[in-house]
Amino acid sequence: MGGDVTSDGQFFVGVDIGGTSIKTGVVSAEGETISKLTAPSIKAGTRDAGLASLYRTIESVVELSGIGWARIDGIGVAAPGTMDIDSGVVFHPFNMPGWENLPLRDLVAKQFDKPTILHNDANAAAYGEYWKGAAKDSKSLMFWTLGTGIGGGIVINGEIVTGAHSHAGECGHIIIQAEGGPYSEHGIHGSLELYAGAKALIRRCKSALAAGARSMIPVQLAQGHELTPLLISACASDGDELANRLIMETGRYLGIGTVNIIHTINPDTILIGGAMTFGQKKTELGRRFLEHVREEVRKHTFPIPAERTRIDYAVLGKDAGFIGAAGCVLAHLQKGT
Length: 337
Known about the structure:
It contains eleven helices and twelve strands. The strands form three sheets. A five-stranded mixed sheet has the order 3-2-1-4-7, sandwiched between helices. A five-stranded mixed sheet has the order 10-9-8-11-12, sandwiched between helices. It folds into two domains: 11-128 and 318-335, Nucleotidyltransferase, domain 5 (2-Layer Sandwich), CATH 3.30.420.40; 138-314, Nucleotidyltransferase, domain 5, CATH 3.30.420. Strand 1 and strand 2 (21-28) form a beta hairpin. The chain is an alpha/beta fold.
């Protein structure tokens, strides 16, 4: 995607570094995507090779835009894992060995001689939805990303909530079962993502099958299909009772997590995005899943937020991260900080 641009406005590069790919885009100050590009992940090879790959991808998306570097006003980088946002250092980027304690923001800024900011990937996606997505008319947002685990991002009055140590918004790690909950290798046992993430869905499915639950899933496995959320979703859509129950349980757990968020920050909008959203509103299963989350919230929260909090799907899909990262650097420059 790319094209000629005649506007004299501002343009920014947004970068979303994921476990399997790097998504980049050139975005205008009005939130229009001028060009976008997806490249293979940087997780393989040395740190220097990974950085070189990142730089090439950024160069390529700017070239594709037809804008030229002179008109790029800043770069926003979204990365996974823990980090110090203020100092621009990535501490432990998941799936990218060798990138520990990497001053990523300053390295990118020096490479391209442009103002650069760093954010957590879920934070950036949340800001994208707040700026130009399904929450663009909201004042406050909690954004869930359902994938292998569960990420989260919070935006209030145009500001990403980052916290004292850049760890705010990690709501997938809310503890919903303190005793006897699923084990976490990170020591956060019984967390929401251990009940409602993709790994959790597969684990609960295996446990139910081992206990003798009837399902068409073993037939699919015997035919060589891999046990994935996509397979479970397909079986649920075909009327499999176990698959349907497992997915609705996922909605129930996500609803419980959402209640905790509502009782903590009372946002006007809750959005659900990520890779595991069961077709969203395009499918009957996705519509039922969303309604199941809403029902669980209504059961357990106060009447006014139960009635007034909007709970819906995100709309930007895989573009949310780079759009949000670009929007973050725009906001950063507008504040003059």
